[in-house]
Task: structure prediction
Amino acid sequence: MRRFFLFSWVIVALLLTACGGQTPAATSTSTPEAQTGGKSITLNGAGATFPLPVYTEWNQMYRSVQPDVTINYQGIGSGGGQKAILDSTVDFAGSDSLLKDNQYTKMPDLQMLPMLAGAVVPIYNLPGVDKLVLDGPTMVDIFMANITNWNDPAIAKLNPGVSLPDAPIVVAHRSDGSGTTEIFTSYLGAVSEEWKNSVGVGKAIEWPADKNGQGIGGKGNPGVAQAVQATPNAIGYVELAYAKSNSIPFANLINAAGNEVTADAETMQDAMAAFANAFNERLTAKIMNAPGQKSWPIMGYTYLIIHMKENQNCDKTKALLEYASWAVSDPAAAQKAADLGYATLPNAVKELVMAKLQEVTCNGQKVLQ
Amino acid sequence: MPQDLFAQIDLPRVYRRRRFLNDVALSLTGVAVALAVIPLVWIVVYVFLKGMQNINLDFFIHLPQAMGTTGGGVTNAIQGSIVMVLVAVVVAIPIALLVAFYLLFHPQTLLGQILRFSTDLLAGVPSIVIGLFGYAILVVPFKHFSALAGGLVLAMIMLPIVIRSAEEMLKLVPKELREGALALGAPEWKTSLSVVLVAALEGIVTGVMLAIARATGETAPLLFTALGNEHYNVVAYVRQGISQHQSIFQILHKILAEPTDALPLTLWKYAQQPYPERVAQSWTVALVLMFFVLALNIGARSWLARKRRQTRG
Amino acid sequence: MQRSKGSTITPMLSSQLGNRNPSWRARMGRWLQHGDRIWRTALLVASLLTVLLVLMIAWEIWTGSTLSRHEFGWNFLLPWVESVWNPALDRFQAWPAIYGSLITSLIALALAVPFSVAIAIFLSELAPPVLRTPLNTMVEMLAAVPSVVYGLWGIYVFLPVVVTPIGRVLAASVGSVPGLSLLFAGPMPVSGTSRLAAALILTFMVTPTIASVSREVLQAIPRSQREASLALGATPWETVWKVLLPYGLSGILGAVILGFGRAIGETMAVTMVIGNVSGSGYSVLRPGYTMASIIANEFAEAVSDMHTSALIEIALILFVVTIILNVIARWLVASVNRKTMGS
Result:
């Protein structure tokens, strides 16, 4: 028995030494940064899955910018991020759902910083159908469960020449509190008074399709994308990056100006331009159902939530602020975001964010000079 | 009336029918066993085939890559699982052994009965409830998701399993052994630790192995305590600590205070992803996890079975 | 603990008085004289800690759910058809989740019990000794496979290959029969995500629990019972069916109750295949929620106090169910023990 234990310990030891030789932290030979004083800092964040693909990329890229700073971001949903920062269990949160007034009252120094904008797209799984067009009212009817079959005349009218199957529509939605859901339902609410009044707009709502047994809940953006992939005849909504990088087809929409648009860099920028001055004093804005000719109608900003007044660990605060300003201003970071299918902030908004970062204090002292 | 009935019965036919029923029913029980084994074989073989496609050294020693890119590994989850299970072992086993000794000495007292009931209850409480409890008392007050919180929650899962098996094993130690040691003048604690415990050690170790297997496979209690961490790397922490001349406590603090990943947690996250690379890796995670858990189980059980045969013989 | 502290303080005081300056060895020896006292205190402390842990869990979920208990009262539990679970409005009723837990566990038990008892009979009465241990190990391994692995295999293999066809057949055959249509209304999502999927996976997970306890119950039945029956001319099957099973009935019931406890608390595999929606009616072919899966899905992001509290109240329900099941199972097993001791 003793030999058995010795053996297992040897294996563990071998594995551990092997890991050590290969990790980025150990192999990064760049000079220790003076800014952090050579101390290694881990920042823990959690929240929205909407920006998760780009945040994970950024966190990897940031290792070469600041080898001593590790950023751990867990995609647990915008609601999860808000809960975590309100419970103070994380250093920062990610959310694309806006904090409510009572949450600002509970913790007055919370600040939402826009990082990126992204499009929410209706993804579908219809074998044999690679182009689908939908408009606002039809989307509302589908998600209201007024339209329950793919060969419904309303869908057929928008898609002449497409052979739509005679199959019930399965609606995939989020099972967790989600900013993506909030963005998506505020679009449906903007299009339809009925939706706004009977179903509502928010992070988590009661889906009418669930009542018919045609709803499926998925955890996070990845969960919804996976559910649609696995379920023929399903429709769902995810951030563009998930659809793009996994080649999941998504529908074109008829926007507020009456034009058919697809979600891409151009239509996103067009929508953002329409709301360029929409930011209020809390630094939040909506980009909903934009009126531009080429605007993609379902978009939203995604935010980091941070504390404006820190008094715990000023090194950590400083590292966080540096990371945030790098993410907003670095061209390589912006390029990565654009590659994945996100829209970067307009310059005016970037300046607002940078100015806000300057105001953060730790123990009463400004952190960034 | 009964006589009439009796006269009508064709006796050999009754026998035949009874024997037929006997044969059919008994073979059906055999079929039930075969059917129960099918899902096991199906899972094990499928996970093995799918998991082997992606298994390589990188998988064990690299941190995860960004979503949607190939390569990378899950060393964070492997190390996190090891750390949390070690914490659980260090915390749960001494307590469990003391409790088992208490039950051995005071089986029928009020506290003994309450204790046995509590243990059964603790074993029966759904692990998600334990996780929720862990969040309330280990995460919120310290304002940190951490490997320590995850380890302590796993300790709560292991505790009742080890108590039960250890108590059973301690009971099997012949009373004469204990009495002999006491008669020689050894104090009770010494008798317990160096005679009774040693005699029951092998059985207790198998119980501990089963508990480790169970804890390693648990996901639900870690959702709200360990959170997840793609950068968790004990080896890097240790190296960094040594190069910066930190004390062992500082290094230990770093290891235990960070949020961490675990194999089942990673599997849960990766399984529900649209990215084919992640799904492919999730099968490999499943393979590693299942192999470890089943190996511990089979090892412990066959050991136990052999031990039982020896004691009987 | 207090006592041991006292024993170390005494020599310190005496050395301060300057009477003696005990050597390290002597001090150690004196300390060890109290070894039994320390040992017993340690046993007691560990035992109290364990009891305290259970009490703390109970206390934490009782106080944590106060808000929800006061706001919703018994309405939270009652089986309203139009139950609301709406985080946006802060209105919560747990019935959809309770129903989901009950229906999935009961279907799993209904399917698992005949199997498990048959397995127990085979392993305890029929299997040749050489096969007994390996077969038993294999059946028990079904319980050892981690829950998430079941979930992964469920999503990608079991659901599309097995559950979807079964669901299609059920919806087509009994889905429109009046009465049964409540339970079997289709259509099932093509991915197979449904309460039925959860129930079938739970079947695999509870079978080993019920089988191994039942096997132990059967093996504990005295030999004389079997011999008497066989001597009277009963076939082996008649012996099993008319003597052993009635004799061990309460023990087997205890095993079933343990299986029920396992099924109702199972979280991960269920969460991965059940679809996670609330208010989807009663059909087993549709997605739903269970109590454990709703906690797993929503607890991490329950921002409002009421939402958190409602989820903790669901944990409270699970805890109370665990207590009740435990008490019943203990009572049943104890009654078997009495019977076996008596004969």
